[in-house]
């Protein structure tokens, strides 16, 4: 029987940021950043509607329209700050991330071998400050999982957390004036977040970082390298565990000493 983790939120649940006017001083408004075809751009200046995570982890035009029927993932589903009920977090708190970003989730899906489309402007109604969602090709048309090892959304979300956990932004050292510091806001939220001020938005789009929308969106960079490294480390860890288990299960030879 399907669990709550296996269901996607209805398509009409998402919020579109088209009603939020872009800052006039933003890099996109000034014409900076990569040029995109007009049919890819959403109502917000310079913010694409949907981007396909390609095999080399770069982002480009979706190759077809079938992706609109794929499974939906929101950062909310793996956010450690959210409760695990009422359509909130869908993974164990020990696995969840403090600062999940949809763009990173899309690239993690690609690293796990799935086709994925990143929609920067789509927002879960309970997570307005962290826009972006992912459409992932988890199952084939007949409903069978495309990867037998990742049969449902719950397992996929757990794998995404395992890949992205090592590259989560770290908070600076606490001080007397700030005993509980947070990472810079442009590392915690995407650049098109309504919670980010115009000045910080400019900084994020120019500087890239983990959450830089257009500054770091094209060409992968350190973000993708870190995800790939986390994937290799996880595979190596799993291999060592299997070898250790095989040694434990291997029958031991028993030598019986005969009496003369």
TrEMBL record:
Basic residues: bias regions: 249-260
KW Cytoplasm (keyword) present: yes
One annotated GO biological process: SRP-dependent cotranslational protein targeting to membrane, signal sequence recognition
GO cellular component: signal recognition particle, endoplasmic reticulum targeting
Localisation per UniProt entry: Cytoplasm
Region Disordered, residue ranges: 1-40, 217-260
Residue stretches of biased makeup (Low complexity): 25-38
Major localization class: cytoplasm
Pfam families in the cross-refs: SRP19 (PF01922)
InterPro entries the UniProt entry points to: Signal_recog_particle_SRP19, SRP19-like_sf
Ranges of compositional bias, category Acidic residues: 1-15
UniProtKB keywords: Cytoplasm, Ribonucleoprotein, Signal recognition particle
Origin superkingdom: Eukaryota
One MF term in the entry's GO annotations: 7S RNA binding
Positions with biased composition (Basic and acidic residues): 227-245
Protein name: BY PROTMAP: gi|472586754|gb|EMS24273.1| signal recognition particle subunit SRP19 [Rhodosporidium toruloides NP11] gi|647398167|emb|CDR41797.1| RHTO0S06e06502g1_1 [Rhodosporidium toruloides]
């Amino acid at each position: 029987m399907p669990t709550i983790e296996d269901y996607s939120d209805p398509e009409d649940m998402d919020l579109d940021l088209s009603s939020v006017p872009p800052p006039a001083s933003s890099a996109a408004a000034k014409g900076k950043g990569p040029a995109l075809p007009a049919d890819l751009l959403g109502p917000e200046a310079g913010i694409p509607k949907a981007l396909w995570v390609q095999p080399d982890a770069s982002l480009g035009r979706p190759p077809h329209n079938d992706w609109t029927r794929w499974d939906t993932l929101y950062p909310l589903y793996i956010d450690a700050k959210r409760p695990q009920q009422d359509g909130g977090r869908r993974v164990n708190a020990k696995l969840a991330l403090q600062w999940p970003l949809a763009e990173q989730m899309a690239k993690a899906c690609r690293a796990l071998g799935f086709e994925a489309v990143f929609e920067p402007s789509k927002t879960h109604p309970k997570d307005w400050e962290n826009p972006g969602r992912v459409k992932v090709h988890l199952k084939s048309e007949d409903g069978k999982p495309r990867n037998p090892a990742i049969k449902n959304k719950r397992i996929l979300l757990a794998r995404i957390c395992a890949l992205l956990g090592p590259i989560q932004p770290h908070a600076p050292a606490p001080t007397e004036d700030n005993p509980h510091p947070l990472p810079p806001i442009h590392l915690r939220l995407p650049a098109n977040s309504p919670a980010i001020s115009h000045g910080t938005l400019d900084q994020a789009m120019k500087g890239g970082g983990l959450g830089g929308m257009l500054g770091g969106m094209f060409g992968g960079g350190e973000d993708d390298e870190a995800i790939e490294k986390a994937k290799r480390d996880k595979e190596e860890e799993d291999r060592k565990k299997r070898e250790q288990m095989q040694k434990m299960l291997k029958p031991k030879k028993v030598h019986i000493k005969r009496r003369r």
